[in-house]
Inverse folding.
């Protein structure tokens, strides 16, 4: 038996009456599974008195096939026959038509604890739409794979609000998706009728492996827990012409470019004496995205001590050192320069006072 029950498991095992008599739209994806790999769609449809009318899908779609920034059309789920409305296409929040005949929108998404990951913002837009339409929102809580004890990085300037930061939140925010929902609803007056189904047994200082829950990739470039650990800093690389390893088997763990020297770059990063990490010289050839088909010199990031590792600081160092060693070639702006960068112009850590955890009280 896992040490932690996700919000999905708590709903099914302990609070099945919460949705009884309700017509439900389920915002979900492929990582919405219980400890036995049963999917939320199956489990919630089996609850007595619950009618799942339609599915809502975030970026990467219901089953996580499309790559990043790929618009997704509506479809029909072949497993259940239910209509699937995309929230990552021409519209990013539910329309009145999507919510017509719905009593409750249930959100079950596995987040990765970084502000730029879009699932929390899809949830926020769904909450806003539900507030306008008088539809209740139930969020099934899940662990933050980075834990909930540490916060790192700057808080987004509202001037630069975008789909990778709609509201002020630290880059490594230390919140579960249920806590993010409570924070947004209370502090930013979204005002929807919100119920968060909390986990049982989760502690803020837990590593993912301690939960006993399975890791299912929530997106194509988040294949392992190792990816999630480096992502708060690795995603900064998207704002440069360095490869962040997309198009390889180690996205966000391999960082490099065709103009770098792997040995010199790794040695320079080692001299920074960053906590909880070491840098191994690496060469890789992306099959798509930046530097596709070109041999890149760079590093692989190896986290040696999770409790000391600072992914955001590490990402800044990777960019700064690459700029020093490839000054003639390094550029700000890569394949994401058509949208706002994931980081603000002001990068120093700002005060995170006031980023409350809502009404959920998980112990450390």
């Amino acid at each position: 038996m896992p040490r932690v029950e996700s919000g999905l498991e708590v709903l099914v095992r302990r609070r099945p009456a919460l949705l009884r008599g309700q017509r439900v739209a389920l915002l979900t994806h492929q990582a919405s599974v219980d400890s036995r790999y049963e999917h939320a769609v199956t489990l919630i449809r089996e609850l007595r008195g619950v009618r799942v009318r339609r599915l809502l899908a975030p970026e990467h779609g219901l089953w996580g096939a499309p790559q990043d920034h790929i618009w997704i059309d509506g479809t029909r789920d072949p497993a259940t026959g239910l209509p699937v409305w995309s929230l990552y296409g021409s519209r990013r929040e539910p329309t009145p038509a999507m919510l017509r005949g719905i009593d409750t929108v249930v959100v079950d998404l596995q987040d990765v604890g970084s502000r730029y990951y879009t699932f929390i913002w899809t949830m926020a837009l769904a909450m806003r739409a539900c507030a306008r339409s008088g539809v209740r929102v139930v969020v099934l809580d899940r662990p933050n794979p980075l834990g909930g004890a540490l916060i790192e990085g700057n808080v987004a300037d509202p001037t630069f609000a975008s789909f990778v930061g709609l509201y002020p939140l630290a880059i490594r925010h230390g919140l579960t998706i249920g806590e993010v929902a409570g924070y947004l609803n209370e502090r930013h007056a979204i005002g929807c009728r919100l119920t968060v189904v909390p986990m049982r047994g989760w502690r803020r200082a837990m590593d993912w492996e301690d939960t006993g829950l399975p890791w299912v990739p929530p997106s194509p470039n988040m294949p392992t827990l190792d990816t999630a650990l480096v992502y708060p800093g690795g995603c900064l690389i998207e704002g440069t012409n360095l490869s962040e390893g997309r198009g390889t088997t180690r996205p966000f763990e391999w960082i490099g470019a065709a103009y770098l020297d792997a040995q010199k770059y790794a040695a320079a990063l080692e001299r920074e004496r960053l906590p909880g990490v070491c840098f191994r010289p690496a060469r890789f050839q992306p099959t798509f995205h930046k530097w596709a088909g070109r041999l890149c010199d760079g590093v692989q990031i190896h986290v040696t001590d999770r409790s000391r590792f600072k992914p955001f600081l590490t990402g800044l160092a990777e960019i700064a050192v690459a700029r020093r060693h490839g000054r003639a070639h390094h550029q700000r702006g890569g394949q994401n320069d058509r949208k706002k960068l994931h980081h603000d112009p002001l990068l120093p850590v700002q005060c995170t006072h006031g980023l409350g955890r809502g009404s959920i009280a998980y112990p450390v």
Observations:
- The CA atoms of residues 20 and 138 lie 13 Å apart.
- The chain has two domains: 7-206, 225-239+241-325.
- The first strand starts at residue 23 and ends at 28.
- Confidence is low (pLDDT under 50) at residues 335-358.
